[in-house]
Amino acid sequence: MGLLSTIFGILCGFLNSIFSLFAFGIGTSIGLVIGYYAFINALPTDVEDVKVCPLVEEDLETLQRLIPEIPLWVKNPDFDRVDWLNRFIENMWPYLDRAICATAKNIAKPIIDEQTPQYKIQSVEFETFTLGTIPPTFQGMKVYTTDDKELIMEPSIKWAGNPNIIIAVTAYGLKATIQVLDLQVFGIPRITLKPLVGIFPCFASIFVSLMNKPHVDFGLKLLGVDLMAIPGLYRFVQELIKDQVANMYLWPQALEVQIMDPEQALKRPLGILDVTVVKAVKLQRKDLLGKSDPYVKLNLREEKVAFKKTTVKRSNLNPEWNEEFSFVIKDPATQVLELRVYDWDQVGTHEEMGLNVVPLKDLTPDEPKVLTLVLLKTLNPNDPQNDKPRGQLVIELVYKPFKEDEMLDDIDDSGKMEKAPEGTPAGGGLLVIIVHEAQDLEGKYHTNPHVRLLFKGEERKTKRIKKNRDPRWDEEFQFRLEEPPTNDRLHVEVYSTSSRIGLLHSKESLGHVSINLVDVVHNRRVNEKYQLIDSRNGRVQIELQWRT
């Protein structure tokens, strides 16, 4: 009996399960059918077909909604149609994309490097940076004519692009990625080129203003999560960007990009001065334990251009250089060439051994002239210190004026100096250090060079380049200072490091040099190659800028 009861219970449970599934299927099917018919019967029955009408027959409200989509050259006679420009940009966009992205990276990198230490961020790198395949579109362009030497343009720009910008941020050992995509920018900037000059590119500065608040929209993902989907954040970010941009660049305020010094640009180059520093004779001994290590600095007096400099001749009172230099001449009647001889010292300032000047008005055009200059203490003819013999400097000069049909771009790049950013202390400035390249480096165990900069207790480093005796970095570093660094020095050291585990000499110095910064303060820009100490032939090219 017990066995029969068990079998009967199992059979009843099985039948109960079968009937339950059958009832669920029937109930679901009946529910779907009833819901479908209820939805169909609930739809309005008085829906009419869409009627296509001419635009003139539409109501005013519909016309107002369509007006923003109409190009400005259609509804505004002041704007010209620029289809040719759109076709040009469309064909050039793959190349413009790479060029713009590379320029943006170069501009952003020093700014990021300056800001990251205060937020304890270890690194910020661009993993992906592309503006996508969709170029911006110019809806029209307005051009103004004025009596001044300037050109004013107002292009209407619309860009609904598909950029992909991925930034990797590393902090406290953790890495996070931020992605910017689906960027939209609509706006009408005013671009002013002035003053117009007769030197390529034919204008000295670019001024950019916004005629109204721009429309900016984009997607922002953090670790794959769309931040713009957070309630309230999207509108807050949009309004914040509009207000910040408007406060800085809404007309009449403008962003100025200086291409060249306007005063210098208005002076057309008239010729080239070729200078050959031949030799010096009977120089004074300056070193206590040796002779002297002379070199010559050349510049045009009262011109804000970088010094030009010969190499250093070690332990030599009668050095021979035979080194050539060129200067762009804009006013030969007033410009003066100044030459100063210095004794190079590893420690302390370089001691001046003598100087002299050559007025360019004394030169006959296209006629080489060899001069033997007596080195003086000062340029005061009545100074009794000038009676003491200091040696002589032999140079060869030739001034080559341009012909009327010759055109020369102004290669004097002193006008390209940028200004210090807003917030720079009054009386201070921004010291910019650009490490360009090094040559003839030679390590005893390995040559994987990078440059280490020490200034006022702060340390900055370039990236490491593997197995290269002639590396090129082109990396920029900035220091914001309260006062000009006239009494400060920059210590530059080139290191080689190896990542091989177990290597006994994993780090070695390839040479160093200490640079006095007084020259860059006076001349605004110095771009020189420095001979590395403790290196056989190694040299490093450092560009210094003092922006105020």
Automatic annotation (TrEMBL):
Q: Gene3D superfamilies from the entry? A: C2 domain
Which metal ions or organic cofactors does this protein require, according to UniProt? Ca(2+)
Provide the SMP-LTD domain boundaries. 78-260
Q: Which GO terms describe its biological process?
A: lipid transport
Annotated Gene Ontology MF terms? lipid binding; metal ion binding
SUPFAM superfamilies, alphabetically?
Answer: C2 domain (Calcium/lipid-binding domain, CaLB) (SSF49562)
Q: GO cellular component terms? A: endoplasmic reticulum; membrane
InterPro entries, per the entry: C2_dom (IPR000008), C2_domain_sf (IPR035892), SMP_LBD (IPR031468), Synaptotagmin_plant (IPR045050), Synaptotagmin_SMP (IPR039010)
List the CDD domains: C2, SMP_SYT
Superkingdom as given in the UniProt entry = Eukaryota
The question of whether Calcium is a record keyword is answered with yes
**Recorded family membership:** Belongs to the synaptotagmin family.
Q: What is this protein called?
A: C2 domain-containing protein
Record lineage: Eukaryota, Viridiplantae, Streptophyta, Embryophyta, Tracheophyta
